[in-house]
Amino acid sequence: MDKDWSSLAERIKDWGRELGFDAVGISGIGLGTAEAGLQAWLDAGYHGEMDYMARHGMKRARPAELVPGTLSVISVRMNYKTKARDADAVHVDANRAYISRYALGRDYHKVLRNRLQSLAERIRAEVGEYGYRVFADSAPVLEVEIAQRAGLGWRGKHTLLLHREAGSCFFLGEIFANLPLPHDKQQINNYCGSCSACIDACPTGAIVAPYQVDARRCISYLTIELKSAIPLELRPLIGNRVYGCDDCQLCCPWNRFARLTPEEDFSVRNGLDAATLEELFQWNEHEFEQRLAGSAIRRIGYERWLRNIAVGLGNAPTSASVLAALEARRDHPSALVREHVAWALRQHGRRAD
């Protein structure tokens, strides 16, 4: 007897919500219309040093090539907004370190992956063995395109997914499955209208056109993905943002509706929502590893952590304590750190040689 796939799809959504996902949708695997845009983005070099973007090529738009046998994609959304010090208050206090709100708690990769695995196993208990693979920002997947096709929102001009009742403060995850599940209605309406707040707010002008981001100028890329030196001309524009950037989201009118998450794993750890630049710069490598265990921030490593904070200190108001913090790292073993410390000292009128 044929399975009632429609009924199963509804139960999958129920199970997903029981596991803490705020929304669950199902899409097909036909992403062909997204290939031209992806190729143009790569051809323009907007991916910067993220070589894996080009290496995987069109696999990102072809789920059945990434996971052979895939027939449907289960897409999930999980809110991450938590009670934290007001983001604007941290931005205006140049002595504090701004860390993207999504990274204040536990590493979302782990949280989502575990929940997705639980959902996949719940499906297996219902249908028996089947082919699947879970993703949580961990492989070449066009997450926003898939989520939009699954009816979870629309792509904003900043390229993130938006939803009228949730804004954009959420994570996305997927299960590629070889199950012929019915597909949800794609989100067609775009409610950005003539608004250009995100484009206007970007500190470095990384949103080069609506729905197009040059990662090479994006502060999130510069402080997280970039492994080499941060371009000199962009350092003053970074301000006190030492891990990621939320400016394009903070100014978005739809994020007035962003909901607080009940997920305790996303709660603020180590006072990262209001820590000072000097305080974080003084951590030794052991403290960095220990305090940020289980955090997404730990992925960039201690060297880039110091690199980023050195830039923040270079943009901070000149004071004896700021200068002392930088002087203490002047002779750091890492050439990358030394160069950024030297730049920061010059910003304060100090010779760095």
TrEMBL record:
The gene is yjeS. NCBIfam families: tRNA epoxyqueuosine(34) reductase QueG. It is found in: Cytoplasm. It comes from the Bacteria. GO terms for cellular component: cytoplasm. One of its GO terms (biological process) is tRNA queuosine(34) biosynthetic process. The active site is at D137 (proton donor). Catalyzes the conversion of epoxyqueuosine (oQ) to queuosine (Q), which is a hypermodified base found in the wobble positions of tRNA(Asp), tRNA(Asn), tRNA(His) and tRNA(Tyr). Its cofactor is [4Fe-4S] cluster; cob(II)alamin. Residues 184-212 form the 4Fe-4S ferredoxin-type domain. GO terms for molecular function: 4 iron, 4 sulfur cluster binding; cobalamin binding; epoxyqueuosine reductase activity; metal ion binding. It catalyses: epoxyqueuosine(34) in tRNA + AH2 = queuosine(34) in tRNA + A + H2O. Monomer. Pathway: tRNA modification; tRNA-queuosine biosynthesis. Binds 2 [4Fe-4S] clusters per monomer. This is Epoxyqueuosine reductase. Cob(II)alamin binds at R60, D137, L161, L172, S220, C245, D246. It holds the Pfam family Fer4_16. Belongs to the QueG family. [4Fe-4S] cluster 2 binds at C202, C218, C245, C248.
